[in-house]
Amino acid sequence: MAWLAGIALALSAVGIVQAMIGWIAVALLADRVAIARRGRAPPPDALPAVSILKPLHGDEPMLEEALATVCRQNYPVFQVVCGVNVAGDSALPVIQRLQARFPRCDIAVVADPTLHGLNRKVGNLINMLPAAKHDVLVIADSDIHAPADWLRRLATALDISGVGLVTAVYTGLAGEPPLPVRSLGALQINHNFLPGALIARAMGRQDCLGATMMLRRETLDQIGGLQALVDHLADDNVLGRLVQRLGLKVALADTIPATTVAETTPAALWRHELRWARTIRALEPLAFAGSVLQYPLAWALLAFLLSGGSLWFMLWFAAAWGLRALAAHGVDRALAIRSPLWLLPLRELMSVAVMAASFTGHRVEWRGHTLQAEGFHPR
Fold it and tell me: N or C: which end of the chain has fewer CB within 10 A?
């Protein structure tokens, strides 16, 4: 047992190093975002007109606040297309209020129940696309809270030679009221997903993150249109891979929007994160297995238990918690957010449990429908 405890301690140390590297990666991105905001804005005629596609499903927590941030974009010409699959969807009154609040914002509404495949979100997008007026498209989740220069930063990245698709990382925003379960969800996004995504990009990966995606209509047509995505659960991952098959890059924009953490119960958060985990495991099994190193406190606790309660291993757990909290605090400062860092041990134990549960099946629940998590199989 002693040597197993030693291995767990070593893995915990690796996780602490990764947390520190993640802190640096987040700080560097935050610096680039700040520099971009201080830079001279391009003239309005240098920015392409953009259509933003917002597939909606019900009146989610903070939906109006999230959509309002898109309507407030500091951008010369853009359109917002909101789509629902049901004529009486509860999101429609929210859109009507936004149309009244932002009369100068071009907001279109599409209500079409037509199904095109397994992925209902992509089916919704297919129904919405004919209403898009412009040839530069943004596909963004309904719960994204966008900074005022979000579109500018996306368009600037898309204008770089060889770039075919632009995406963005994001932070987690605990919805109202800020329940502990929502704080746990935000911790996963802010202190595991976001630093991990930046480390992966620094290592050469070009993952597409589905919360924000910008591309030209021409590029979308070249990969086979939205129909090429409609039978895939991880449509963002498939989109990124298909764009790269064209010889184009997936760029990361210098912007950091936020996404609402809406779950109000541990069970709802568990289902959401299990869907993420099973999807990632199906797409990237090796990277998914390696992500267990993101949880140094879980490894430190395991080392302590395997050691039979050794004082030295208890001291290491305390030191690991302090170092992990230091890295998390650094991430919070860089992102100008505040997190309940005392929840970090519980957060890590839950993340490890979700990872373990992801190996017990392939089915996931998404908005009341059961789907199969699958890998990417190019046609």
Answer: C
Query: What is the separation of C-alpha 276 from the centre of its chain, rounded to a whole number of angstroms?
Result: 10
Q: Do 211 and 354 share a domain, yes or no? A: no
CATH number at residue 91: 3.90.550.10
Shared-domain flag, residues 302 and 194: no
pLDDT score of 141 more than 70: yes
Q: Which two tokens stand for residue 45?
A: 């005629």
Query: Whole-angstrom Cα distance, residue 57 to residue 338?
Result: 29
Measure the CA–CA gap between 134 and 363, rounded to whole angstroms: 37
Across 343-370, average pLDDT: 85
Kindly tell me if the per-residue pLDDT of 367 is higher than 70: no
What integer is the mean pLDDT of 358-369?
A: 74
Angle among Cα 16, 356, 191 to the nearest 5 degrees reads 35
Alpha helices in 42-149 (DSSP H): 63-71, 92-101, 120-128
3-state secondary structure labels for all residues of 240-287:
HHHHHHCCCEEEECCCCCEEEECCCCHHHHHHHHHHHHHHHHHHCHHH
In terms of domains, do 141 and 203 share one?
A: yes
User: Hey, what are 27's tokens?
Assistant: 């700080």
Cα(263)–Cα(340) distance, integer angstroms: 17
Q: Which domain range does residue 182 map to?
A: 41-265
Q: Of 217, 244, 265, which residue sits at a domain end? A: 265
Task: Please tell me the distance from the alpha carbon of residue 326 to that of residue 290, in angstroms, as a whole number.
Answer: 23
Provide long-range contacts, Cβ within 8 A and 24+ apart, for 276-279: 277/354, 277/355, 277/357, 277/358, 278/358, 278/361, 278/362, 278/363, 278/364, 278/373, 279/233, 279/234, 279/364, 279/373
8 Å CB contact between 2 and 310: no
pLDDT of res. 246: 97
pTM here is: 0.92
